[in-house]
Design goal:
By secondary structure, the protein is mainly alpha-helical. It has helices spanning about 5-10, 15-60, 70-90, 90-110, 125-160. Helix 2 packs antiparallel against helix 3.
């Protein structure tokens, strides 16, 4: 028996919209967390490999094959990769999206398990509590995003001012 068959057995017309929203949000945050994790690890592995290569390169070749432009180009490439990671915030987004996804899953399992705070005798009260908790999580995520956007905008303005 999979989770979808359990979910469909517990859905009523009054809670199907709330459950659908919950499932959509879990899927979205899970996909975004996976995407950011893959990007972050991809760029980190390239950085690590390039750093190892650049530190070993001068000592492994004779002076005839040694080309300083390889070191120079590798250094530039390392800076570009780091800049891409800083601009796109892959690591913080990965952690944030994964955390939000896990909080949503936690509420889903509490709801379907009829555990606190979803253990009222009235299903409408449980659905209302679930909807409130989902929206509270989403509201916090939106506020965090707005604050992060303001912080990034302030950094950009400061950088532009220093130029």
């Amino acid at each position: 028996m999979d989770i979808n068959s359990i979910n469909s057995g517990l859905q009523t017309p009054s809670n199907s919209i709330v459950i659908q929203r919950l499932e959509n949000q879990i899927d979205w945050y899970d996909a975004k967390a996976s995407h950011c994790q893959k990007r972050y690890k991809f760029f980190k592995f390239i950085q690590i490999g390039l750093t190892i290569f650049l530190s070993a390169y001068p000592g492994t070749y004779s002076t005839i094959l040694y080309d300083p432009t390889v070191i120079w180009g590798g250094g530039i490439l390392l800076m570009i990769i780091e800049m891409i990671q800083q601009v796109n915030n892959y690591y913080p987004l990965w952690i944030s999206y994964r955390s939000t996804c896990e909080r949503l899953k936690n509420h889903k399992y509490l709801y379907f398990g009829h555990a606190e705070p979803y253990n009222h005798n009235e299903e409408k009260k449980n659905v209302a509590t679930l909807a409130t908790n989902i929206e509270r999580i989403m509201s916090k995520e939106n506020i965090d995003w707005i604050n992060e956007t303001k912080t990034n905008k302030s950094k950009e303005l400061a950088t532009d001012f220093l130029k």
